[in-house]
Structures are given as C-alpha cells and as structure tokens.
Amino acid sequence: MTWYQGPSGAGAPPSRFNHSANIVGGTKMYIFGGWDGKNYFNDVYILDLEIMAWKRPECSGPMPTARQGHASILIGNNLVVHGGFKLREAELKSCGLNQGTHLTSSFLDDIRVLDTDTFVWSRLRISGLPPEARYGHSLNISGSDIIMFGGWTKNSGNRDKHVLKKEQCEYFQ
C-alpha cells in the first residue's frame, strides 16, 4: 500500500473534522457535516474515486441541522445520518458590562436520509422510544437491523446498544 495526496483543488470541501465519509456504489465517497473549529456544516461533497474529482450536489428536502460527531451508514442508495452535536450561541440578556455570548450545547437525536440518486433529504419516522441524543457513536448493519453503539450523551459516555428494525421504518418529508 502507498499513501498519496488526493485532490484538493477546485470543488474540494473546506477543511473539517468529525464529519462522516461513506462509499457509495464503490466509486464515490460522500462527505457530510463536520466542524472546522468555528463553523458547523450540513453540506454534502462527493469525491469521484475513478477520476479523483470533487463535486457538491444540489440537495433538496428538509435539510439536516449542521452537526459534527454524527454517525452515518449506507443502506442501498440511502445515506442515513443519526445524531451528532452542535454548540449554539445565545445572546445573554444581562445588564451593564456583562453582555456577551453564552454557548449552549445541542445533542441531536434525529435521523435523516439522503437519497443518493435524487439528492433529496427526508426524515425517518420511527416508532418506539428513541435512544438518548448523542454524538461519537457508531451505526452498523446486521441483517435487517441497524445497530447503534456507544457515544456521548449530555451526562456521560455510553456503552449501550440500540437496534432499529429497518422494515419498521418509514421515510417522510
């Protein structure tokens, strides 16, 4: 094996970390979300692995909240994104010289689905009690189940496991 520098010119996404990357169809790598230390992203970039060129598709539908530390998985032609984390800036409404910015955190528990053929985002309707909102977790497929493991919630790290039955899910916008 040999490392080499991939494309970084025109069309490449801005620098980021805590994003997700999934291979679609064996020839394309989809990048979603992440953070650059100042800005959170909810954009999608595609690296065509055959010609090593970037493109940014026009997506429609209910866009996911910008986030970092989410988990993603490919199911057929659908990119499934769950959870993540985002800091929100809220103005402090105080008097005198104590005005400033207060940072509050948002742990996310939504599931969004991007159809990689049409580039349309949708939400996933799920029954049952959802797992606690989290980031830094993983998603995997086992038969017809989506397995979620671990992550960080508002209070602590987790080693819990949750199973989502694919046939009991419904996409909606």
Main attributes of the structure:
173 residues, Kelch-typ_b-propeller, 4-stranded antiparallel β-sheet, 52% strand, single chain, mainly beta, 0% helix, Neuraminidase
The CATH class designation of the domain at 62-172 is Mainly Beta
Reported by name, the CATH topology of the domain at 62-172 is Neuraminidase
String of helices and strands: EEEEEEEEEEEE
| Total count of helical runs of at least 4 residues | 0
Assign an overall shape: globular
Overall residue-averaged pLDDT value:
86
State the end-to-end CA separation. Answer: 43 Å
**Tally of strands:** 12
Largest sheet: 5 strands, antiparallel
Binned, the helix content reads under 10%
How would you explain this protein's 3D organization?
The chain is an all-beta fold. The chain has a domain at 62-172: Neuraminidase, CATH 2.120.10.80. Helices cover 0% and strands 52% of the residues. The chain has no helices and twelve strands. The protein has strands spanning 20-24, 28-35, 40-48, 53-55, 71-75, 78-91, 101-115, 120-125, 138-142, 145-152, 157-165, 170-172. Strand 7 and strand 8 form a beta hairpin. The chain starts with 19 loop residues before the first strand and ends with a strand. The relative contact order is 0.15. The model is unreliable at 91-98 (pLDDT under 50).
